Amino acid sequence: MQIFVMRHGQAGMVAASDALRPLTDKGIKEAQEMGHWLSKQAPCFDCVLVSPYLRAQQTAEAVLSKLVNVGKKETLSIITPEDNPKAVHDYLDAICSIEQYQHILLVSHMPLVSYLIAELTSDNAMPIFQTASVAQIDYDTEQMKGELLALISPSDIK
């Protein structure tokens, strides 16, 4: 199974709360570029999991506009910036034991995305994500661990 973990695009700094920070024009463009890249990596995404924060929702919408085949999109309250990566790992293992997903996209935030990569991979790598970057993990559902295959940012695909 392939798990793609994405950080939201560049967001503005001024908003009523952190959860309401919108994407900038650059952030929307970054997300669209990564959506185009993702469309070449997987023929379909069985499930897209998105943080409830505005910038993650906007990132997911920009990405989804470039994808042809998406099974379901779900807002997941446990993938906000300060959430627990172990809880997210447990959630992913639970849904994978029920569903036969082959490709999952998760759109979230720093620092969770870095901690989540460490949690999901055997070598415990904890990369720093630029805005709209995507980590691709080849995940073994039997071992409940995976291997980080790539970390791609919008500047890598230009």
Task: Describe what you observe in this structure.
The chain is α/β, with parallel strands linked by helices and 158 residues long. The chain contains four helices and six strands. It has a six-stranded mixed β-sheet, with helices on both faces. α1 (25-41) packs across α2 and α3 (85-98) crosses α4.
Structural class, judged by helices and strands? alpha/beta
Task: Please mark out the parts with pLDDT under 50 across 5 or more consecutive residues, or reply none.
Answer: none
The biggest beta sheet, please? 6 strands, mixed
Helix content: 25-40%
Strand order of the largest sheet: 3-2-4-1-5-6
- Assembly state: single chain
Number of strands: 6
Q: Given the structure, what is the number of helices?
A: 4
Q: On the 0-100 scale, what is the average pLDDT? A: 95
- Beta-strand share of residues: 15-25%
- The shape, in one word, is globular
Radius of gyration: 14 Å
The CA-CA distance between the termini, in Å, is: 27 Å
Order of helices and strands: EHEHEHEHEE
Q: Descriptors for this entry?
A:
158 residues, alpha/beta, 6-stranded mixed beta sheet, 4 helices
Topology:
Elements: E1 2-7, H1 25-41, E2 45-50, H2 54-64, E3 70-75, H3 85-98, E4 103-108, H4 112-120, E5 134-140, E6 145-152
Parallel strand pairs: 1-4, 2-3, 2-4
Antiparallel strand pairs: 1-5, 5-6
Helix pairs in contact: 1-2, 3-4
